[in-house]
Every structure is written in structure tokens, then in C-alpha cells.
């Protein structure tokens, strides 16, 4: 799932985060319930609006002038969104991880109570990512700047780690993608 998939392939070994995760080798197990509706997925707030790199380019400067009351409302809205995101990730959610060949595999994602470590679990394989090791969180048009072997599209978000490994997730729509990317960026920035 994220075996040296970012930047130029470097001769640093064949470490794979989820070894053997090809379409033919992904075992079924306790993480893939028979009924997909049983998997808890990430909820996007109904009032979530997109103000990203994609939308900023179309508005000229990319800046929106807000009065103090509007700023306070936006800050409260952001705080509630982050709180809800964190609560979901503390319990664990399923996201579609993108394998190097483009295949999607259900991945259970959850964070530790200190919000410092993201745990990814595909079947019986578990990997931990410290948020401080995430160098970039790329989505939408930002993905064009990455040199990756994994086929990605505008519905993907890629977490790029300091060791040039990355993991990509695919979402059903742009709102889901931007919700995840925005919340992860805020959590990552909070650790600096």
C-alpha cells in the first residue's frame, strides 16, 4: 500500500508497508465484514464547503475577506469539524487505501488518544505513522506535483512521509477528499 510509492524510486530496499497486498493476495478476514454497511466510514459535515488549492485558483487571490463575526463563526465551525473528525478516528474508520497497482483495499484507520500516531490496519497487517513524520498532505491538483507510481486521481489524498514512503486514500467525492485533507493538515500543523 505504501512501499516507496512517492518521489523517485530510491534503492533503499523493498520494504512494503502492507506486503503481499495485491488484488489476488489480499486475504479476507475480520476487517472486511460480509456486509460493507457494517464498516464505519468517515462522515463529512453537511455544511462543509471547499476552499482548497483547487477553488483558490479560480477566485484570483485565493483570499476571502471576513469580518470579525464571520471569522468567529468559521473558527467555531472548524473546531467542531476537527473535534468530530478526531472522535471518529479515535474510534476507528474505514478508508479505501490505494495499492500501487491502483486497487482499492479497505483500511481501518485510527489515532491514539494523544493524536500523535495514525494506525493503519489491512487485515492482519498493522502499521503506525507518527503525524510528525508526515511531510506533506497532497490532494486534488497538488497530486500532479508528486512523482508516484501509484495511479491517483482527483479523489485521492496522499500522505507523504519523511522517508519518501506514502500512503494514498481514495474518496467518493471531492468534499470527502477535502474534509480528510483539511482535518489531517490541521492536526499535523498542531504538532509543530
Quick summary:
With 192 residues, the chain is an alpha+beta fold. The chain is built from 3 helices and 7 strands.
Descriptive account of the structure:
The chain has 192 residues and is an alpha+beta fold. It is built from 3 helices and 7 strands, in the order H-H-E-E-E-E-E-E-E-H. Strands 4-3-2-1-7-6-5 form a 7-stranded antiparallel sheet.
Query: Any low-confidence stretches, pLDDT <50, length ≥5?
Result: 1-34, 52-60
Provide the gyration radius in Å: 17 Å
SS element count, helices: 3
State the total count of DSSP E strands.
7
Keywords:
192 residues; alpha+beta; 7-stranded antiparallel sheet; 3 helices; 23% helix; globular; disordered N terminus
Topology, element by element:
Elements: H1 53-56, H2 68-91, E1 93-98, E2 104-111, E3 117-122, E4 125-130, E5 134-139, E6 156-161, E7 166-170, H3 174-190
Antiparallel strand pairs: 1-2, 1-7, 2-3, 3-4, 5-6, 6-7
Amino acid at each position: 500500500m505504501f512501499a516507496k510509492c512517492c518521489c523517485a524510486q530510491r534503492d533503499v530496499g523493498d520494504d512494503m508497508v502492507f506486503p503481499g497486498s495485491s488484488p489476488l493476495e489480499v486475504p479476507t478476514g475480520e476487517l472486511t465484514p460480509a456486509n460493507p454497511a457494517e464498516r464505519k466510514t468517515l462522515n463529512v459535515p453537511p455544511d462543509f464547503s471547499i476552499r482548497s488549492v483547487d477553488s483558490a485558483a479560480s477566485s484570483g487571490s485565493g483570499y476571502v475577506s471576513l469580518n470579525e463575526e464571520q471569522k468567529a463563526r468559521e473558527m467555531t465551525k472548524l473546531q467542531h469539524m476537527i473535534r468530530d473528525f478526531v472522535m471518529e478516528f479515535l474510534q476507528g474508520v474505514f478508508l479505501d487505501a490505494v495499492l500501487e497497482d491502483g486497487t482499492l483495499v479497505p483500511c481501518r484507520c485510527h489515532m491514539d488518544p494523544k493524536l500523535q500516531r495514525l494506525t493503519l490496519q489491512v487485515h492482519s497487517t498493522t502499521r503506525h505513522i507518527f503525524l510528525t513524520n508526515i511531510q506533506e498532505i497532497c490532494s486534488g491538483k497538488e497530486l500532479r506535483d508528486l512523482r508516484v507510481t501509484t495511479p491517483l486521481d482527483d479523489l485521492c489524498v496522499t500522505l507523504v512521509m519523511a522517508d519518501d514512503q506514502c500512503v494514498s486514500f481514495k474518496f467518493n467525492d471531492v468534499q470527502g477528499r477535502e474534509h480528510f485533507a483539511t482535518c489531517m493538515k490541521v492536526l499535523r500543523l498542531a504538532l509543530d
